[in-house]
Fold each of these.
Amino acid sequence: MAEADGYPTALGAADLRTITLLGHDLARDVMGEVGFGELAFWLAAQRRPSRGEVRVFEAVLAALADHGFTPTAITARLTFLSAPDSVQGALAAGLLGGGSRFLGVTEDTGRFLHDVLTGLDELPGDDAAWDDLAEDVVRRQREAGRFVPGLGHHLHKEGDPRTPRMFQIADEEGVAGPHLALFAAVGRAHPRVLGRTLPLNGAGVCGAALADLGLPLELLRGFALLARTAGLVGQLAEELRNPVAQRVFLSVDGATRAVPPDPLPHP
């Protein structure tokens, strides 16, 4: 039996004649009036974002929607090949691959930057101070044998084109905050520690931007998955028009060769 005060929610609720969402009439005030990106932000933050916040948030969604034949896309296509009656299965399979190497970097970077910032008594006052902080952070990560989230890319080794654009949009809208400032400083300072220059990747700058928007750190990967859902729908739509999953399967199957077993050591 429900508690006496019921189950309160500020999200969706309905009665016989109306549907309410975020305190507004869904049919009258939301449908046709609020874009999906704005609504997604509003649902998570339970406050309506400014136009600048919407632009940055939607730039993040666009940046993470699709990145070609990544493991998430291949998995979705192969699952669709195996179970064409289960679009939800293909989408779910692709989303389940959003981990520490793909998409999860968005959350990892946001959390990493936030942890550094919450440990400060005050924020650095200029670029030189930010660079000193970033150099210390990178050095401590290296000494601990850990990577710096958001630093490096397997393909865009000369620079991820999404990164400078995200900084530009956040600056134009006046919503660039300390997470983006620290991330930019990591990009400037890390060569002095690592002895080589690595790009700041798009997933990382998206995590920094989302953290500066004040969105819950626990949901940052969720926003990356929201973006990639659109990309996976596109992958499946293209698979219907121009299928490649069968060729991927046959290329692996045709290259299979039998080898002797490699047993695990006996305990």
Amino acid sequence: MELSRKRQRELKKLRRQAGDVWDEQREVLERAASILRDASRQAASVAREDVAPRVRDTYEKRIVPGVEAGVGSVRHAASATRDRFVDDVMPAVTGAIGSAIAVLDVARDKRLRDAIRQVSASGRDLATRAGQKVGLIEVKPSPGPGRYILIGLGVVATAAIAYAAWQTLRADDDLWVEEVDPDAEAPAV
């Protein structure tokens, strides 16, 4: 079956436009990966500059006196610290990492790339309708909200990690046992 020159030109134009759309999507995904790397660097910097000194201070002011007071208070402090870490910090960190990995997995999905390639080969109108039916693409004249959603995810993940670290390291006087002087008189009741 021979296509007319006009149809051939239209098909070439549609292929070129589909290639441009694919290039734009790739740029958005590369930018999202870059933002995720930057967020990771910032989180490491915050951990190094803010969290580590607080951990060191907490260790020196609360753990060391506990060791001197006795094994019982050290066990209590270690148990409370472990519980706070397991209950507060780990879920926030794993949730943020899981979200980032899920976004990257979707971006690297071979089926998504193959579907876009197939749709681009059969013409723009057909590709647009098929992509919208499948839910793979949303036609917009300018870059879509995906860029801002990925930025938002990075900010939320960083904020969640910072909040979990803050909650873990804040002063909570109820968790610590004070040293009791055995020579002191018991108060009269």
